[in-house]
Amino acid sequence: MRQRNGGEQLWYRAISEHLVPNTPSMYRRLSSRLARARREGRFPDLVDTLREVHVPPAWTDNAAFLEQAPDWFRLDRSRGREVAVYVAAGKDSLRRMFSSWLADLGVPVLVVRGFGSQSYVDVVRARVAQDPRPAVLEYIVLPGFAECGVTMHCIG
């Protein structure tokens, strides 16, 4: 199985803008050129969600914690809506893009990675069960793939 990397987000954007054909050889060529450009300092690093150092949050003291706490406060932006909307992306490399678009609206983003996971289904069902509103799942597939557009499903 091919490793996912931050270059996939660029790949999907290029496909959706019809800048490159959606072929394995074009993907390999783009990956190779991006890696070379990054090594040469001509292109910024890309997001790599698979390989990172996970460090629990820590602060030097109480004052440092309290200084950062206001940045974490957020009201529930979905409050008052008739339905609870969830957006699902097929690839983790799209998560940051969708999350940045939807964060101010309070819409959760699910990453399904192209296959089902019973434990993930259970987590989503538990969240939906805690909300009295009907839940709607919007699954977004970018243009340039076999299926295009947005598919809506009621979940719950």
Total helices: the number is 5
Strand order of the largest sheet: 2-1-3-4
* Basic shape: extended
Specify the helix fraction band: 25-40%
**What is the tally of beta strands?**
4
Strand proportion: 5-15%
| Average pLDDT, all residues | 78
- Kindly provide the radius of gyration, computed on alpha-carbon positions and rounded to a whole number of angstroms: 19 Å
**N to C succession of SSEs:** HHHEHEHEE
Structural class: alpha/beta
Query: Which regions have little confidence, pLDDT < 50, spanning 5+ residues?
Result: 1-5, 144-151
Task: Give a written overview of the molecule.
The protein starts with 6 loop residues before the first helix and ends with a strand. Mean pLDDT is 78; it is low at 1-5 and 144-151. The longest helix is centred in the first third of the chain and has 16 residues, at 24-39. With 156 residues, the chain is α/β, with parallel strands linked by helices. The chain has helices at residues 7-16, 24-39, 62-72, 95-102, 118-129, and strands at residues 84-89, 109-111, 135-141, 149-155. A 4-stranded mixed sheet has the order 2-1-3-4, with helices on one face. Helices cover 37% and strands 15% of the residues.
What's a quick, concise take on this entry?
It is built from five helices and four strands, in the order αααβαβαββ.
